[in-house]
Amino acid sequence: MKKIGIIGGAGYTAGELLRLLINHPEAQIVFIHSTSNAGRPVCEIHEGLTGDCDLHFSDSYDLNAVDVLFLCQGHGFSRKFWEENERPEGLKVVDLAQDYRDESEGYTYGLPEAKREAIREASLIANPGCFATAIQTALLPLAAAGRLGGEIHVTGITGSTGAGVKPGATTHFSWRTDNLSVYKAFEHQHLAEIRQTLRQLQPGFDAEISFIPVRGDFARGIFAMTYIDTDLSIEEATRIYKDFYAGAAFTHVSDRPVDLKQVVNTNKALISLEKHGSKLLIISAIDNLLKGASGQAVQNFNLICGLPEDCGLRLKPSAF
Question: What sequence ranges are listed for the domain Semialdehyde dehydrogenase NAD-binding (predicted)?
């Protein structure tokens, strides 16, 4: 049984992390830190945990009391946290922010489909971004085969939970519902980690990644549409993808078109392929809060702790 601490316990990703860890057979939650909610029952903030959890938020923490620490605060917080705290010897860390996704300070980038064996040996994990996960799972097999060449085109639609729990002008229900909008076109922060991984798999990769992120009018999930020019036939491409993901715990290549409802509330990444003339279209779908954040964080927790990769993560989507 691994003892768990969580820093930044009030947000969406922390809520999903708690939902998973409360039911995880090898996890015991020792503290859930939230200065603004200290003393309050966790289920007052994460109401979906009512009846499942009698834990309270704390404004203090003892890093020596836990085996694994999850950092669930906003981007930039993690570096500040380690400036103010000393990491005890042997403490493993899974950081859900973007601070160490460049693999600085000894962190390993936590995308199991690309770095499973390195993650198993690591103590410090930088959990990937949600869009980065969806787009990389669409491209990893081609990079590993050295088949990425010209410009990569991606349009990705994300649910409103990707913007976090704090309300804003573009997250209000009245603005977001029945609406679509583009943001951070060609400049999304996840592009850096995507390029980093692709270059590790295919040295010399320097093609442009033209990415258009879209705010969707749904709560959770990412649906990414990626296309490239290639001389691969659909049969050759399908073989490359199925061979690459043959041992993956949660990423699957479908022979049928995939849709968002197949992955929402699961840790799956589903992929389908189509060939149109010279263009290969890769559709990838994930739940942004699970495979794109907290589910992948637990997947990494399992790997660094020597547990089965899918432990506590066999979640089922809704039938409708």
Answer: 3-122
